[in-house]
Amino acid sequence: MPYIPNTDADRREMLAAAGFASVEDMWEQAGVKFPAPKLDGIPEGKSEFEVMSYLSGLAEKNATHLINFVGGGYYDHIIPAAADAIASRGEFYTAYTPYQPEASQGTLQAIYEYQTAICRLTGMEVSNASLYDGGTALFEAMMMAAHITGRRQVVISAAVSPIFRCMIECYCRNLDLERIEIPDGHGTDSALDAVIAAVTDRTACVIVQYPNFFGEVEDLTGVVAAAQARGALAVCSAYPVALGCLKTPGEMGFDIVTGEGQSLGIPLSFGGPYLGFMAVKAKYMRKMPGRVVGRTVDLNGKTGYVLTLQTREQHIRREHATSNICSNESLCALNALIYLSLCGKEGFRRVGELCMSKAVYAREQLLAIPGVMPVGSGAFFNEFVIETPLDGAELVGKLIDKGFAAGFPLGRYYPERKNQILVAVTEKRTREEIKALANAMEALL
Amino acid sequence: MAKYYSESHEWIELDGTTAALGISQYAADSLGDITYVEIPGPGKSVAAGDVLCTVESVKAVSDVYAPVAGTVSDGNADLEADPGALNADPENTWICKLAGVKADALNGLMDAAAYAKFIETL
Asked: Quick check: ipTM above 0.85?
């Protein structure tokens, strides 16, 4: 099926009208020279079987057998088999936009239920239908705050994921925005007093993470109050699994909450596809990027679902759209919805409780090793920092040979934390696996 | 007081140096049912031709341009609860008021008769 709308006849007609013999003739007369494509390095075609063997060989190079204690925003949770089975049903299996409500009621209802789930998780009033991932969602929140306040200064804690901060920096490179990064505390805290002190009357928003990148759970109500007192918005990037157990960002008064939804039934892979979520206070919904599905009734009074507030989106507003995210991650959002539905309210809370209790056990086991020191003394959820006499990256590298992905070496993003690693524990890890990690680490130190 | 119109279908009515601003009947009819009016906040300064705010209907979101330079001094808060007032009586429903408007700013805008002729050409 050709995707170029003008036919050969159309092109001949246009060329004749412009007075050119051919497209090549047009480029030549315009003085544009295209280098001839070099195709020498491209090998001969292979059969289906050969391609499968080759790709399987490449896939085997991935270390998928490691017992995983790496988190840093992306976590190894149990995914019920039913999640994929339902999400991959033919009726659902498209990420395309349900522009025509009469043909898309199932997809629209699923997105509507997803939005409801995100609102309940975050404690917020309005959720959009999803964004690309946690980092881009946080960037969108920052831009939204700049538009709402008309201000260009952003205060961001260094205890926000360095991966997300890197993405924000990349997106902001050519934007007129002043980012003020507040160094984290020496332990695992976000140095909230310094964050609060940095807020001025020019601040568009304050960005913090919950729990923070080092796993610490902090009371962020003071940050929210300080931001709002100066007319700035309070923005929180949150780990959704933690929200099943902890006080919600909504309860703390945040204006915008975003996060990475990978933990909600989406498998770990190298960079995605993942899921960004965003929920806001109702008063900001018209400034929120992305689309929203609403529930309504038809002429006969029957419940129906439609894309609503879509008049602000790219297919209508063109360059004036609130964001240029036009396609979204509906399929990943569907996975998240199915996962949450399968867990149920109590089950999801139980996932969080298991993460916490297993993390406490793992921390005790690791701190019992001579030479391993705790970092930070605050409350944590399922992730914590330890310091060892070895370089973190070196220690993690040696443990890979023993079958463990032992943690996230912090030195890569925080040079002063060269010997520290961030260890994440999910409900998937067993007592035996945790013991085995402690034994393997002890043998190396 | 006479009303003056822009080619982008806003009207203004100048009283001293303060101008009330709205959208024309033609604009309201073209937009269809209006569902939301973003009312500009007091203190916002605009040059002639700048985007002042947006009006959202079931069909589209359209920019409202400032036909003259000025500073927003007041917004019509009634439109928050009743955006449909802009459909019901657009020519008598102001969106905001601009202060500090110079009299010569009206040059280049159309009076009602000229605007009526202008929309016939569209």
From this structure: no
